[in-house]
Here is the input.
Amino acid sequence: MGDTAESITLESLAASIAKVAVELDIQEAKFVTLEGNTDIFYTLICGAFIFFMQCGFAMLCAGSVRQKNVKNIMLKNLLDACGGALGFWSIGFANAYGTGGKFIGGSTDKFFLNDYGGGAAHIDFFFQFTFAATAATIVAGTVAERCKMQAYLLYSVFLTAFVYPVVVHAIWNGEGFLAAANENPLSGVGMIDFAGSGVVHMTGGCTALVAAIVLGPRVGRFYDADGKVLAEPFTFPAHSVALQVLGTFILWFGWYGFNPGSTLAISGAGQGDTAALCAVTTTLSAATGSITAMFIDTLIGMCTEGHAEYDITMAMNGALGGLVAITANCAVVEPWAAVLIGLIAGIVYVFASKLLVKLKIDDAVDAVPVHFFCGMWGLVATGIFCSEDLLLASYDVVGGGIFYGHGNVLGNELLGIMFIIGWTAGIMTPFFILINWLGLFRVDATEERVGLDISHHKGAAYDMTRPDDADIDEMKEKRSATAHNREVA
Here is the structure.
């Protein structure tokens, strides 16, 4: 009887252990699912923040142009998102993140997402699409008020489907020759561009610079009606400062998806710490860039004109310049370094803006100084201020900026700058020259003077029709008669 009882007890214990093991397996599977879904939701929210930046670009551009071109620039910003989505979905995503290719992706699974599905895969495409759309929309403001719609559609799709993906493949694809994620990264560390100062902003800014040069300035900006150089460049007043400021704040808000979201997940060890650091460095650089740009411009005005004026445009674009500059290094620099990066970004923006005017390159919203020049400074700053400990935590590679006694990061950043400029300008220059030669790039001068809303979009954005004078006189007569009747009564 004793042996039988002991056998039953052992069997019961084994069954209980088996039950517990099954329950643990079930709970572990649930935890893994929850972890994966948490990362998907985090990326979805950050991607939505980035997509909301399209609204910021639209508001900023609409406020910066003249009233007669508001519909045109708003439609172009809308079509950026549409054309970018289709171009990136069809071939851009595969070119950027396909495997098996040194120059562009060689695998076929990501073309049209034909063999790339499921929650993690779909959110990966969505998040990366929002970056591609941002690169495309940078160009819209620069060529505002004189660019044909068909040209805009052509270069928007071409940029998101081919030009931008090649840059992405080189720097963010694990097989790219500059990628920090490469098995054998260049100089042991690769190029550090955490969220895209170079990949996104320099690519879009360089495209905008080439477009502005080929397209030429707006009528009346640098030359009079006879083609003679104006003594002073004419500044076209922004039609709504309120929209400009709204757009700036929306963009700043969206950057909290752009930079922290580039951790690509939140559940892994240290990812929360990295995302939080990105939020802090992003804030500090933007704030410092805004203040610096405004006061540098004020000081220049005091020296040249003898009195102080505070330009809100400088403050807004200084903040954006600080945001662009910190994008490459937000995860690998300390907060104090972010302040210095924003400070220098504000200075870079001011002098780059004045340089374009000096060269008679017309940028309607100063997108080139903000995205191209401040993006370039962001990459250089990475090579200077990149922290050894933060680099190891974010990328698991050994190196740092020259401030920490290393030169490998700076060398790679400079190589990346040369690659982005060489590739983007080398492809987009003949592209813009060709569509300009075909007469597809610039609107007719008369249509430009009338305004693109009336000449291309069935009427002005705002109904400014004055009430009929006869109706106004009749209203006044009725009110006068009513008042007279009251006095008699």
Q: What stands out?
A: The two ends are 119 Å apart (CA to CA).
